[in-house]
Amino acid sequence: MRLILLNKHLSLIFSLLIVFVFILLRSIFPEYSQMVYFIVFYIALGLAFNIFLGFTNYVCFGYTVFLALGGYAMAHSIKWLASSLNPVLVFTIGVLLSSLYAGIVALLVGAIGLRLKETYFAIATIGLTQGLRFFIEGFRVWGGSEGLIVAGDIISNYGSEWLTTLSIEYADILVFSTAVLSIVITYYLLNSRTGYALLAIREDEEVANSFGINPVKYKLLAFMISAILGAFIGASKLLKDQAVFPAEAFSLGFTLEALVITLIGGKGTLLFPLIAGILYASLKYFLTTILPGFQLLIFAIIVIVIVELFPEGIMGWLKKKLRGRAIESILI
Amino acid sequence: MSVVLRVEGVAKYFGGIKALDGVTLDIHENELLAIIGPNGAGKTTLFNVITGLRKPDRGRVLYMGRDITRAPPYKRAQMGIARAFQIPRLIYNASVMDNAVLSCLFGGKMDLNNSKKRVLEVLKLVGLEKKANELAANLTSPEKKLLEFARAVAMKPRVLLLDEIVAGMPPAEVDNIMNLVRKIAIGEKITVVAMVEHVIRAVKYADRAVFLHQGRILVEGSPSEVLNNKLVKEVYLGEIIE
Hints:
The structure holds 2 protein chains of 2 kinds. Chain A is mainly alpha-helical.
């Protein structure tokens, strides 16, 4: 009995351990902080995306929107408040604001869109990305097509030291916290009443509905959690880049990358998407260094191979192979 | 006997097809009501309208005197209306226990511990208690049907809609299952509305029967009255060889 209980927690312990190894790595070798950030960024992205896709089977092609909103929220906090508040408060308010932006948009989109079937939702969310981008550019709100650049605001209010501190320390703290938060939430969803409800809805929405589960409520919950975590990642990226441009922020890029990570990792588990995030980030880092520009071509081939050969994801396939062995329990 | 569920002038059209064409039906507390009728008579649509999976084009559904016509399915389940589907719609990669726990947790609004206790109790009633930890996918097809039934019973419903529980079963099994349904309905004080195939064998277990044809209730009465009705014999039983 004790062993079973331990097994149940192993995936959580393992996942947290991996993230802590990266934190340790970063504090011992600060010169690698850029690379560590890059990897943890994709760990967080994969996990946050998976909270929605993995638990509901819905694909949100507009996921980039939430990263963009997180970026805009953090930029707003700096632009509006840097002259009157200290940087820690501005950072904190930026984080809160990003969850507010993403939460509201997810609520609006989800409350309508999640009543649709999976395919229609996916199509509708592609429109979301373009719609928001053209809204910002066309109506010249939030800096229009020129975007928002906050480096100047930071330097003039706090000095150039804070530029480095925010872009290295605070961006890293935020992305690490998001990764840990995503792990804990995924684990909670795998082992809770809410998780039960989501499992039932994913399997057969009509049946779940007939047994007292409100499908829209639970799907919306997963969608909002996933969106807010995505916004945190976007906010951290804003601190890294110190600017947000609509053309880049609303491209499909991050959504597609999150999808590739999910393809590699399989859906609805904890440790797999995490490992997939590490694999993807490392491979991308490596390919961008040795064959700049070619990484997209190579990933296209990898995706086609995965879809053809491992429809449940490589990790899903691996899990099937290991079924019944002792190692299976930690792979959940 | 008090009316627990009332269907009032319900009509449902799919394009030009009249699936239900003005059905009015009272379901009494603690009775076992059998609904019979040929394929396409509107039985499944009637169940869908009662559980809320389909909204009627006309008419109302009243549950304990309350109009629930616009209530979504999950609310109706929480109020105590459960349903077992004709083809078991289980979560096949989850255990028998987990499948049934779900309905207790949400439909029955119990906590996890009470849900598990309740599920074991019900699995014992239907004889599946030894399979509690088995994956639902590993059950035989009659066992899957029993689990589908047990899952609905587990949430302690007031009204249970059984969609063809004996369909595809060998005649000898029909008696066993119908006996079981009757026993559980009485023991658990559940009002049961059952669509039944194997009409001649199954209907006698009901307290009352209703004959549905082309979206209308044509005959209503005791099982023997309905079975001996001239119209029922002509349009329905004439085709059945048992």
